[in-house]
Design a protein that fits this description.
With 573 residues, the chain is mainly beta. A hairpin with a 4-residue loop joins strand 43 and strand 44 (524-527).
Length: 573
């Protein structure tokens, strides 16, 4: 008997549900991102970011100041000079490539500014616009280095605004501990009302043996901040979380685009503290074409505290598109993604993680996929709502990256207030054989869609607290308010389960080798022309396209973003 078990009669009913196809372009430099296709049921799809950061390079016109600085003292003098100059004109400070600027440099307040201050390398021509920098280009950058423990190399004063840092190396001497290498705002330390700051083509790094908690603190109460085409590495600490980029208070828009970012704790974190007002909740966030990773050389060789690759404890109207996320293991958590709304200190009941779009991303070499907390289980918060997760790829999960707990998606949190409108469709998940692909907790959620995916069943498939699986788990969790159809669930029989335990209209295969990928062994997850799940075949998706992620569109969305590779993983450590 053929290993394929398909509910072919149901396919004759036609393509009843609509899905999504299309490219992953748009959303940066002021361009609106294309809207997704409608949801197949009553689910309300997320809003995309409603504002974008304009990253056009300022031009120094007649009347603008150019201040050349060859020493640290001249740099400080230039900062004072341009801060006192016209707030409506663009000015620049030019630092000498290859020169050392030791000290702690303050970006002065410029309340009411509309013109920019550009602080740049004299060799900026060697660092072309639109191209991510690397450590090999440090000779084309001035080196700004703090020699003081826990004092940032560059830090903003209150009311600092309209600064652009271009082509700078920012680092530290061999001090034992550093909080932030670049502080653009920090309300907890009285640095407020900052905004309109862009970090562009910079190399920001700690040292391999020193503790550095954070690369860039992006607390900007005035909003509008970006990190683009930059390289941030060696951000790590023992016994505390560390991040390349952190934002707690920043009403947006925020752009993180085409960077190489590496840290031990959370590579990028939104939240971790309480905004003083809902006005400052991070929102209108675009994160595109980045390589986000934890250094695999740290696995088993250092005491750095490892947690997850990206985490949202706060955030509204977020677009994550065309990123590559790699390496996370259970030093603490081991997830690739954590979306866990938190009223961290109990002073922000307005804490929210809603209107989230995650598409065309690749996640690999992680212990687990998603940790999703619908509502803060410790403090009052809003419930997470309006999520769309589509056309993403996960592979090489579990195994050496796991401690044995291999659930792909863990969904927990209080049952009230209810989480609403979560859509997971057109994803390809080459997950571990152990655990569940969806582990759920409280009831009372509404409008859940799980459709057109390729995923491994694991031991338990859809599992709910209390020991029920499949349709029973879905009914207990969402009642009748869900869509679960046209999913290819691999490996059910080996776990002692079958399609009869799930809603009608799904498929199963004994192994991923039966799916019809172009080259499973080489991690090429396009569907071959002969695959039963290819468009035009009986197992096609509900919208008439290929089942699973659109790998061609995913590769296009990631093009130009670098990473360790487009899809093929590097050698394991």
């Amino acid at each position: 008997m053929n290993s394929r078990t398909l509910l072919w009669p149901l396919l004759a009913l036609g393509l009843l549900l609509s899905g999504c196809s299309g490219s992953g372009s748009g959303g940066s430099g002021g361009e609106p991102a294309p809207a997704p296709a409608p949801a197949p049921n009553a689910a309300k799809l997320p809003q995309l970011p409603q504002a974008q950061v304009d990253v056009t390079m300022p031009i120094i016109t007649i009347g603008g100041i150019t201040c050349n600085a060859t020493t640290a003292s001249e740099f400080s003098s230039c900062l004072t000079t341009v801060a006192a100059a016209s707030l409506s004109l663009n000015h620049e400070i030019v630092l000498t490539a290859g020169a050392a600027y030791d000290g702690n440099f303050t970006l002065p307040g410029r309340s009411g500014a509309t013109g920019w201050v550009v602080i740049r390398s004299s060799a900026i021509a060697n660092l072309p616009v639109g191209t991510r920098v690397s450590s090999s280009q440090a000779s084309s950058m001035p080196r700004i280095r703090t020699t003081s423990t826990d004092t940032a190399a560059i830090h903003a004063a209150s009311n600092a605004s309209h600064y652009r840092l271009v082509g700078l190396e920012v680092t530290q001497s061999a001090v034992a501990h550093m909080y932030n290498l670049v502080t653009l705002g920090e309300a907890s330390n009285g640095i407020v009302n900052t905004g309109y700051v862009i970090v562009d083509r910079c190399y920001i790094h700690g040292l391999s043996t020193s503790e550095t908690r954070r690369g860039v603190n992006m607390d900007l109460r005035l909003g509008t901040g970006a990190v683009i085409e930059s390289f941030i590495e060696n951000i790590h600490e023992t016994g505390a979380d560390s991040q390349t980029i952190l934002a707690i208070e920043n009403p947006g828009p925020i752009l993180i685009q085409n960077n190489d970012l590496s840290a031990a704790g959370e590579v990028v974190l939104f939240g971790g503290g309480d905004p003083s007002s809902v006005t400052y909740l991070p929102q209108d966030i675009t994160i595109k074409r980045n390589y986000l990773h934890i250094n695999p050389a740290w696995k088993g060789t250092t005491s750095w505290s490892v947690k997850t690759i990206i985490e949202f404890k706060l955030g509204k109207r977020v677009l994550m598109e065309g990123n590559i996320l790699e390496y996370s293991w259970p030093g603490d958590i081991g997830y690739g993604w954590r979306l866990t709304v938190r009223n961290q200190g109990g002073n922000a009941p307005f804490a929210d993680v809603s209107d989230i779009t995650i598409r065309y991303n690749t996640t690999a070499h992680v212990g687990k996929g998603f940790n999703f907390l619908g509502t803060d289980n410790d403090q009052p918060s809003l419930a997470q709502k309006h999520w769309l997760i589509e056309h993403n790829l996960w592979y090489d999960m579990g195994g050496q990256w796991s401690n044995g707990s291999n659930n792909f998606w863990v969904w927990t949190g209080p049952s009230s207030p209810a989480t609403d409108d979560i859509v997971f469709r057109h994803n390809t998940v080459i997950n571990a054989t152990a655990g569940a692909f969806l582990y759920t907790g409280p009831s009372g959620q509404t409008n859940f869609t799980f459709q057109d995916n390729i995923i491994h069943h694991g031991d338990y498939g859809v599992y709910r607290d209390g020991g029920v699986i499949g349709t029973q788990a879905l009914n207990a969790q969402w009642g009748s308010s869900y869509t679960f159809t046209k999913n290819l669930i691999v490996g059910m029989a080996a776990a002692g389960h079958n399609l009869g335990e799930y809603p009608a209209g799904n498929f199963t295969e004994a192994a991923f080798s039966n799916v019809g990928f172009v080259n499973l062994g080489a991690n090429d997850y396009h569907l071959a022309a002969s695959s039963l799940y290819k468009a035009g075949h009986a197992g096609q998706a509900s919208d008439g396209t290929d089942l699973g992620a659109n790998i061609t569109a995913l590769e296009a969305a990631q093009a130009g973003g670098g990473g360790s590779s487009d899809i093929t993983p590097p050698a394991a450590p």
